[in-house]
Automatic annotation (TrEMBL):
Top-rank lineage group of the source organism: Bacteria
Keywords attached to this entry: DNA-binding, Transcription, Transcription regulation
Keyword Protease: no
Name of this protein: LuxR C-terminal-related transcriptional regulator
Lineage: Bacteria, Bacillati, Actinomycetota, Actinomycetes, Pseudonocardiales
Length: 351
């Protein structure tokens, strides 16, 4: 029940079912059920924005359940989305590849479909639009064959973006129509919010997108999915930036805070840049402070990307900063950590 609730978007009931289910499984010595519950819990934490320490916990579960593909594929999905939110597209792609995304017809359907969506998002980030379409079409074939549109909340928005990027507007519209028909009469709030987001994307050229993105943001917020709510709000802000810049600034200010709270480095940098372009530069909410020998939030962002293997130039591009600024951050974090090169930088330095 918890697993079904998470996929559909009923996250508060999911938390209650998990609490009771894990207790009963542990009391009755049912380790396999405990493993399924803990795996579902990781996905629930991702959706509800409880990201602090989530990557470490999820990697530990992958190691613990390394012989249980049904568990590890779902955990890899969580790791993939966390890596993508930090802009570590190479790592994200590797995680998504281990979800069954290459052969979704032979994998656990909702996990593989979401894995295809993640793979497509990585390809879109690298402007490999044709390859992204191929990834979404693998998943769409399964969704259509099983009439499983209630599981397409991750897939549909990426599919629409990929089709539009390849000048296939009719195919994008078809996905939206199929999603709408596929969830009619079904209690799938996560897919319903995704549908509003898809309609907003289609309506951009007609100047009617803002209301759809606002509806999507409200839907995601009501489900307690802060990351998706922030993404939809950011899209709404982009729609009104020219006609109502003050409203866009207000929306983006909240978006920056939301992304910062989550640790969504890439998204925070992008929205902060959009805010600066509107003349609404935003200082950290706590104001300037001295971190002493501790890494500042920005230095942690840079360090995470260096650990992932990115060059200074690549870090600068992801954070929308100059290479010189990144060099200064790198020099300070090296000095604080007492190291002399990136080869000495280790994940434990971020703890």
């Amino acid at each position: 029940m918890a697993d079904a609730c998470v996929w559909l978007g009923h996250l508060e009931p999911a938390a209650r079912f998990l609490r009771d289910g894990l207790r009963l499984a542990e009391e009755n010595g049912a380790p396999f059920l405990v493993s399924t519950g803990r795996t579902t819990e990781a996905r629930l934490d991702w959706l509800t924005g409880r990201w602090a320490g989530l990557a470490v916990r999820t990697r530990a579960l992958v190691e613990e359940y390394r012989d249980l593909t049904s568990m590890t594929s779902e955990l890899e999905l969580v790791l993939g989305w966390l890596a993508a939110a930090e802009g570590n597209w190479a790592d994200a792609g590797e995680h998504f590849a281990r979800t069954g995304a290459d052969t979704p017809e032979d994998a656990i359907t909702p996990v593989a479909v979401a894995g295809c969506a993640g793979t497509a998002a990585c390809l879109m980030a690298g402007r490999a639009h044709t390859e992204a379409v191929a990834a979404v079409e693998r998943a769409l074939a399964v969704v259509r064959g099983k009439d499983a549109w209630t599981w397409a909340a991750d897939l549909a928005p990426v599919a629409v973006d990929a089709y539009l990027a390849t000048d296939r507007a009719d195919d994008a519209a078809r996905v939206v129509e199929e999603l709408a028909a596929g969830i009619t009469g079904r209690d799938a709030p996560l897919a319903t919010a995704a549908l509003a987001r898809c309609r907003g994307t289609l309506a951009r050229e007609r100047g009617e997108a803002a209301d759809w993105f606002r509806e999507a943001a409200a839907g995601y917020a009501s489900l307690n999915t802060p990351y998706f709510a922030a993404l939809a709000t950011e899209q709404a802000a982009a729609c009104v930036a020219s006609s109502a810049p003050a409203e866009a600034v207000a929306l983006l200010s909240g978006v920056v805070d939301a992304f910062d709270d989550l640790g969504a480095v890439l998204d925070a940098a992008r929205s902060r840049r959009a805010l600066r372009n509107l003349g609404g530069g935003k200082s950290p909410r706590r104001g300037r402070r001295c971190y002493g020998k501790n890494l500042s939030p920005r230095e942690r962002e840079v360090a995470r990307m260096l650990v992932a293997g990115l060059t200074n130039k690549e870090v600068a591009e992801r954070l929308f900063l100059s290479p010189r600024t990144i060099e200064q951050h790198v020099a300070r974090l090296f000095r604080k950590l007492g190291i002399n090169s990136r080869t000495q930088l280790r994940p434990h330095h971020l703890d």
